Amino acid sequence: MNKFFYNVAIAVPLRQTFTYHSNQEIIPGTRVAVKFGKTNKLGVVTETVSNSDIQTKPIHMVLDDGPVFSKTELKIFKWASNYYLHPIGEVVISFLPTHLRQIKNTYEVSILDDNKKIIEKNLDFETTLNSEQVKAVKFINKLQGFMPTLLYGVTGSGKTEIYIRCIYEKLLNNKSVLVLAPEIALTPQLESRVRNQFGDLVGIYHSKMTPTARYKVWKKFKNGEIKIIIGTRSAVMLPASKLGLIIVDEEHDASYKQQEGFKFSARDIAIKRAQTIKIPIILGSATPSLRTLKLVDDKKFQSISLTKRVTQKSPPKFSILDINEVNLVSGLAPQAIDAINRTLNQNKQAMIFINRRGFAPQFICSYCDWKAMCNSCDSSLVFHYQASRLICHRCDSAFGVPTHCPSCSKAQLSFHGTGTEQLEKTLKEIFPNSPIYRLDRDSTTKVGSLETILSEINNSDTGILIGTQMLIKGHDFPNLELVVAVNVDQGITSLNSSALEEMGQQLIQVAGRAGRLDGNATVLVQSRYTNDQNLLQLRSGNYLNFTKSLMKQRQLMNQPPYSFEATIKAVSPNAQTNLDMLIQTKKFIDATNCIVIGPIPAMQSKVRGSYHHHLVIQANTRTGLNKLLADLANSLTADKNKIFKKVRWSINIDPTEF
Length: 658
Ligand SMILES: [Zn+2]
Ligand SMILES: [Zn+2]
Description:
This protein is α/β, with parallel strands linked by helices. It is built from 17 helices and 27 strands.
């Protein structure tokens, strides 16, 4: 009997594949069931091996009639496993649709006649392109092979129309296209625009869909029935037939980075995928990340710009409002309230951008300074008025609201700070006749509620919009004349360097929602740091000015993108165990020429009863960092010190949360 040997990636947290044998020939990429320890586990064959020196067990079931992943896709998984130092089995399985993560389900290969032309030549487009857009489309359509390109377009410059023309060009050549977008459920516009144009050829893929719906889309894209995918980060490795172009819209968006488990960046994997199959990739944004801008500076990425708004509307003017020595009303300066009043009198809309949901972020005893905190996290509890509860935004635990202080029994409890709910209540009192719309996670939990609120806003001339960053993601409000940004100071004072970059991006994006033909729209930024250099740069409304000065600061401090960062995190129910483990780990890193900071408590130092600590590592080269971490992961896994077994440890490459 013939005996073939295979390496199999199994869904276990171990940094290796395992060799099994079979009497059948199995194509790599096929799912199998194997015995691992005492249980049956799902695995994916990653490669054939000529023979094995070690004793192997048999593969006892081939689950599919063909491979679910191609050789190229497997190659990218292997790269991702090495790059992110994450167990290969978990990497591979995480890109399977939930339906195929179960041994009982089978993937049946269906092959379409993929060669017939699927789209008409001379398709009608809804919109006319301006000369800048025409230039960009020509530029992109000429790209051959791997060619990462930044499409920098100011807000409202019509990037979506460019995507549509470039997708069309690929369809004419019988190629498929992958479009990644952050949080599609929050930004239905891109989806509806692409769907209007290409109908059934479009599939949507994100985590809010049911597993069955996702599996359907997965299969159709793999066999070529669907030619265009619009998906969130989980769609980045959808098996594709004849992929010809990848588009990463809003490439700067933080949601491309997965923060739990396999901590990958979908933007980075998308770039690797394009490189591996030698196709162009477009990174679109009005506020590109510093990392991307650095790659453009270094001539590793190309770049094309859209500087004009398609509507010919002038961009809004920025003005910084000093709130030192000002009595704020629910977080708003009197001058801001006057500006809202003027806007409403002109029958226009005003928006308050505040990145804090709930009523008040703190609940405090003024007698003994007791503060309501979550039982199992180090987060202050946020008072929610409608729910009449104190809620932890970290673990979602909810608590009753005490009438007397649990510490000193005095009835001197009060709320501090402002959230979206409180602003809504206050503004309703000040402007009783004006419609007020609140957009945050709490007001949009019901399916369809976001769409309802958005259409109400668009059907009304006047009114006040209150919202978190959810409000600034790609929505256009034609009647919006005034934006008031509250709470930007957190970005200015944060020790986390990416907080400032994100603050700049949010202000430019929020300004992009406003703008009128006569150029009278204003963005009022409330701040206590009116002389802050970064804030002053933003006042021009020119994002690139802001990034230039920020880049200089980063270079001076040798921070990314001028160096490469990773964190080693330790999680356990005992803070001292974390520290012991990280101090041991630090000794290992001290022997190299990388810089290591810590151990320090994570920004969220206690979550659901477990303590979080980490080391921050900085290296001058990507290869240097990768080699150090690979050696480190090996030594932590081998574990001569029992201490490493007492904590859950993980590595985060290019971290965005600290
Ligand atoms: Zn008290
Ligand atoms: Zn909590």
